[in-house]
Amino acid sequence: MPKTIPTPGPWTVTQQREFYHDHPQPLQIWRMTDEPEDCRFLARMSDDWSDEQKANAQLMAAAPDLLTELKESIQFVAKWANDHDSQIGFRMVDRMQAAIDKAEGESIHV
């Protein structure tokens, strides 16, 4: 299975308007850039405006930044684990790599 390349960030949470004809409008996640042709719709949350839904939307919007930082951090942790022969460090690297694989679709079985 080829490696999945996610839509690059930045992603942001938007809401066109709070209500339309007395119906709550969903939160949406968009890739936003200075170039309008590069902006793209990514996901629509349910019409549920709970704090949990808002937190989920914010977490999804942060995903590209989190993935980038995790990819940079794993190199440091791996070097530290090797330098110190740290089993805890090796387990951290394994968990970090599993999270990266999940984000890039490597762990999805269809």
List the helices and strands and how they pair.
Layout (H helix, E strand, L loop, with lengths): L10 E4 L4 E2 L2 E2 L3 E4 L8 E5 L6 H34 L2 H17 L7
Helix pairs in contact: 1-2
Number of helices: 2
Radius of gyration: 18 Å
Q: Mind summarizing the main beta sheet?
A: 3 strands, antiparallel
Q: Summarize the helix and strand pattern as letters.
A: EEEEEHH
Strand ordering within the main sheet: 1-4-5
Could you explain how this protein is built, in words?
The structure is a single chain. With 110 residues, this protein is of the alpha+beta class. It has one domain. It has a 3-stranded antiparallel sheet with strand order 1-4-5, with helices on one face. It has a two-stranded antiparallel sheet with strand order 2-3. Strand 4 and strand 5 form a beta hairpin. Helix 1 crosses helix 2. The longest helix has 34 residues. The radius of gyration is 18 Å and the shape is elongated. The termini are close together.
